[in-house]
Each structure stands twice: as C-alpha cells, then as structure tokens.
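User: I'm designing a mutation panel for Transcriptional regulator and want to avoid disrupting the core. Could you give me a predicted structure to guide residue selection? Please restate the sequence first so the numbering is unambiguous.

Assistant: Good idea. Sequence first, for numbering, then the predicted structure tokens:
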Amino acid sequence: MIIREQCTCPLEVVHDIIKGKWKTMIIYQLKDGSMSLAQLERDIDQITQKMLLQHLRELRSSGIVDKIKTEGYPLHVEYYLTERGKRLLDAVLIMQEIGIDYMVEMGQTELLDRKGIPYPQKSG
C-alpha cells in the first residue's frame, strides 16, 4: 500500500488506506470484535488467504487493524479494529446502508436475502 506523501485533501489519504476490493469488507467483518484469520476467510466470500493477509498487513500498517497472538501451540492470532478502525467503521456502516438502498432501488435483493441482510421493503 502506498500512501501519497503530497495530497490535496485528507480524503486522498483515507482513500489510499481503504482502496482495494476487500478492505472495507474486512473492517465490516470486525465490527463485532476480534476474529481469527480462518473466521475472516470463511466469512468473506471469494477472498483468498493471500489477499486477506496482504490487506490485513496494510490495514495494520495504517493503524486500522491490529492483532493479538496467543502463546502456545498451535499459535492463535486474532485481528481486531483499533480506535482509528472503529472510527472508520462508522463510515463503512454508512457505505453499507447506501449499498443496501441502491440494491433495493435496482431490485437486486436476491443477494441481500441470501445473506440475511435486512432491508426496507418497497412500498407500493
């Protein structure tokens, strides 16, 4: 991940931090607390372990996510949102709501139904 040194707006920095297909989904998955790598991989459809590890590394380097290692064998690692990550989660939740509204407007509710994501029913 490259965060530009010269920018014209703070939003450019945030964009650099969260750009990529999976980062907002990782942040969303961590909304309820820490999760293991295996849990994240299971809960994020179609992400590969390689991409998950790369994005977690990038989110850690920007202070959005951190990890806890538990001693013993096998080694157990859990990832969680930092305070900065929790602040960013607020924005991600708004993005989720906007995505849901758009999908409802476009009649694309099959995915929402399949994943059990609640949405407002169209009146009419």
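For picking mutation sites, this is relevant: The CA atoms of residues 45 and 94 lie 21 Å apart. The beta strands are 35-36, 65-70, 76-81.
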